[in-house]
Amino acid sequence: MFPGSHPCECAEAALRLKRISYTRVNLIPAFHKLVVRSHFPGKTVPALALGDERIIGSRAILRRLDELEPVPRLIPEDPALRTRVEEAEAWGDDVLQPLVRRVAWAGLRRDTDAMLSYATGAKMPLPRPLLKLGARPVAAMAWRYNRATDEQALADLAALRGHLDKIENWMDEGVLGGEAPNVADLQIGSAVRLLSTYEDLSPLLAGRRCVRLGKTGFAPPVGSIPAGTLPAGWVPQAGA
User: Per-residue pLDDT tens for 118-135?
Assistant: First the structure.
């Protein structure tokens, strides 16, 4: 994994909820692809080594963990609820996850010191002075790879309130936010958890019920993108 990655936090929360012992290996964003590709059948994180088995991606990892340790169960047994939960999980993975990532890199490109804040306390493969030296090119590579242009980030921010409403509608319907966390709670909760560390978004998230999805099973967030990093006027006003 690499620090600050919401899909990685999703997988780690599942390991924590199931009380499965694991070793966390932190990599450097952008360069992580080279390391992962040398050991796994892919190049993205999270990547889980389970004995000789190699698993890529948060959704695949959560399903394998449910097979390995069925308590607590992350995929509902009720067929109707399972269908709805998996629909929400797929939306969290395919729509919300990349949006949160694009907004992050739009900010981190402007404040590379903020990127290092997400690695606070983490055992990294390089000393902090070298990480700081490489932060700007890493942010530039990740920004380009994720197509986090200013135009795209503005569109993502404009759509964010509607996405938060969608999440809270699922909570009202019992798809999310139940007593026992499910795969959609972890997938969406990890993204909302990361959003809560973008200080420019604090007014937009204030009072939103969906913020609590980022707390169950997750460690307290580390790191932040300071207020004022995004240009004035980018973030829609709450209630506007």
Answer: 999 999 998 989 988 888
pLDDT tens digits, residue range 34-83? 889 999 989 899 999 999 999 999 999 999 999 999 999 999 999 999 99
- Sign of the four-CA dihedral 62, 66, 69, 71: positive
Cα separations in angstroms, 7 against 122, 184, 229: 17, 12, 23
Residue-wise pLDDT tens digits, 170-216: 999 999 999 989 999 999 999 999 999 999 999 999 999 999 999 98
Report the distance separating Cα 207 and Cα 163, nearest Å.
Answer: 15
Which DSSP category does 109 fall into? T
Residue type at 91?
W
Contact, 69 vs 20, CB < 8 A?
Answer: yes
Share of the chain above pLDDT 70, in %: 99
189 neighbors 8 (Cβ within 8 angstroms):
no
As a whole number of angstroms, the distance between CA 91 and CA 125 comes to 33
CA angle, corner 136, sides to 132 and 140, nearest 5?
A: 150
Secondary structure of residue 173 in the 3-state scheme: coil
Residue 18 token pair: 């199931």
The conformation of residue 213, written as its DSSP 8-state character, comes to G
Please, where are the H alpha helices in the chain?
6-17, 32-37, 58-68, 79-91, 97-108, 112-117, 128-145, 150-172, 183-195, 202-205
Q: What pLDDT score does 240 carry?
A: 52
